């Protein structure tokens, strides 16, 4: 699978529309640790059954907070003149995540808390971890942009793909 995309077709199309490669892990060395920390937290919770409450909370928080950013990403890309194929991933997630929000909050995290009350603290911890790590990523990006810099480790290398 080396060199092949493991992205969803919509996300792969968005990357290509931005002039980026959809090759698996093509940019991982350019992403700062804070961003990898967000993803690694989710992976840690998801890989260990004992953390099932944490991953349920993490997923619920992610789904409950993703519709508006995806709308903004799509609108921003349109303002930059990018086409519907490039914005489709983000546009699809506006509507889909609104539905996923209800499912993740009520059917997944809520039901898990009702059926296994001992996991309630883990569910809340997972949600808090998602929001905290997301905040760290946002603060990193905003501070870089306010300084007139990229939030990537070496943007020129990353864009050369």
Features:
single chain, 161 residues, mainly alpha, 7 helices
What does this structure look like?
With 161 residues, the protein is mainly α. It has one domain (9-22, 33-148). It is 72% helix and 0% strand.
Concise synopsis of the structure shown:
By secondary structure, this protein is mainly α. It is 72% helix and 0% strand.
* Average pLDDT over all residues: 91
- Content-based structural category: mainly alpha
The dominant shape is globular
Order of helices and strands: HHHHHHH
Give me the Rg, rounded.
17 Å
Tell me what portion of residues adopts beta-strand conformation.
under 5%
State the total count of DSSP E strands.
0
Report the sheet with the most strands, covering strand number, pairing sense and barrel closure: none
Number of structural domains: 1
Helix content estimate: over 70%
Regions with pLDDT < 50 over 5+ consecutive residues?
none
Cα end-to-end separation = 18 Å
**Number of contiguous helices:** 7
SSE blueprint:
Elements: H1 9-17, H2 33-47, H3 52-65, H4 67-79, H5 84-115, H6 120-146, H7 155-160
């Amino acid at each position: 699978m080396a060199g092949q995309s493991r992205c969803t077709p919509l996300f792969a199309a968005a990357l290509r529309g931005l002039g980026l490669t959809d090759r698996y892990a093509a940019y991982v060395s350019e992403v700062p640790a804070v961003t990898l920390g967000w993803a690694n937290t989710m992976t840690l919770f998801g890989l260990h059954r004992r953390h099932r409450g944490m991953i349920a909370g993490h997923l619920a928080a992610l789904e409950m907070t993703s519709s508006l950013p995806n709308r903004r990403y799509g609108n921003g890309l349109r303002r930059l003149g990018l086409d519907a194929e490039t914005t489709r991933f983000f546009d699809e997630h506006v509507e889909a995540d609104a539905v996923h929000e209800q499912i993740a909050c009520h059917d997944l995290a809520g039901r898990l808390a009702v059926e296994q009350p001992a996991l309630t603290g883990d569910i809340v911890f997972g949600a808090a971890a998602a929001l905290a790590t997301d905040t760290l990523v946002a603060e990193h990006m905003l501070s870089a942009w306010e300084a007139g810099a990229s939030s990537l480790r070496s943007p020129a290398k990353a864009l050369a793909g």
